[in-house]
Design a protein that fits this description.
The protein has about 210 residues and is of the alpha/beta class. The protein has helices at about 10-25, 35-40, 55-65, 80-85, 105-110, 125-135, 145-160, 175-180; strands spanning about 70-75, 95-100, 120, 140-145, 165, 190, 200-205.
Length: about 210
């Protein structure tokens, strides 16, 4: 009897449901004020496709950005804007890019009082994205866009800052994984989350 292989849409739906359940279970231990406020106001389902659930903010963004040395940050992959809001705690300005312009992020940013700290760019193609990013100054970048097609180009666009956080970096044979494998090992730090393997994050320090 052949094994049924779930299609990509079904796989992602199951992944997001699992993420929401994990966030719900761990929320009592969360200390990040942004995550706590978003959870209280919008509920657990707002985190279903968010890459900053529960202990991400404490383990990743606080560790890489909490030293106060960075002034601005760039994010590729905005969605509902929660990760951009988390990052805004540690810098004066966050530039964030997406091919979709979801209304929910503006509601979230207004509620959190961080809308003035975040600049959103809706991009229509890769050339437009590159043109804008090449003109921006930023101290650190978070790469969480189109993992299949744009991981490498996003890294080449943002590596000028010498600090890149790369999402889903240990999902073997994925493009983020291949990218991280190509980087000098001594320049990479991993943040591993046992509860959901594909969300493990790598931090590249090119200084």
């Amino acid at each position: 009897m052949p094994i049924e292989i779930p299609d990509q849409e079904k796989y992602l739906e199951l992944k997001y449901q699992r993420m929401a359940r994990i966030v719900d279970a761990k929320m009592s231990r969360v200390t990040d004020p942004i995550i706590k406020k978003v959870y209280k106001k919008f509920g657990v389902n707002i985190f279903r496709r968010c890459s900053a659930p529960a202990d991400y903010s404490e383990k990743v963004f606080k560790d890489t950005m909490g030293h106060g040395k960075f002034v601005s940050a760039l994010e590729i992959g905005t969605l509902n804007g929660i990760t951009a809001a988390v990052m805004s705690q540690y810098v004066d300005k966050v530039y964030t890019f997406d091919i979709e312009d979801y209304d929910k992020k503006y509601e979230i940013w207004e509620y959190l009082g961080v809308r003035d700290k975040i600049k959103f760019y809706k991009i229509n193609n890769e050339l437009e994205k590159a043109d804008i990013i090449n003109k921006l100054y930023f101290d650190i970048a978070y790469i969480d866009g189109d993992h299949l097609h744009c991981t490498w180009s996003d890294f080449f666009l943002t590596r000028k800052c010498k600090h890149c956080i790369i999402h889903e970096a240990t999902l073997e044979s994925s493009e983020p994984w291949k990218l991280v494998q190509a980087l000098p090992k001594k320049q990479v730090k991993y943040f591993k989350f046992a509860f959901i393997k594909e969300c493990t994050i790598a931090y590249w320090n090119g200084e």
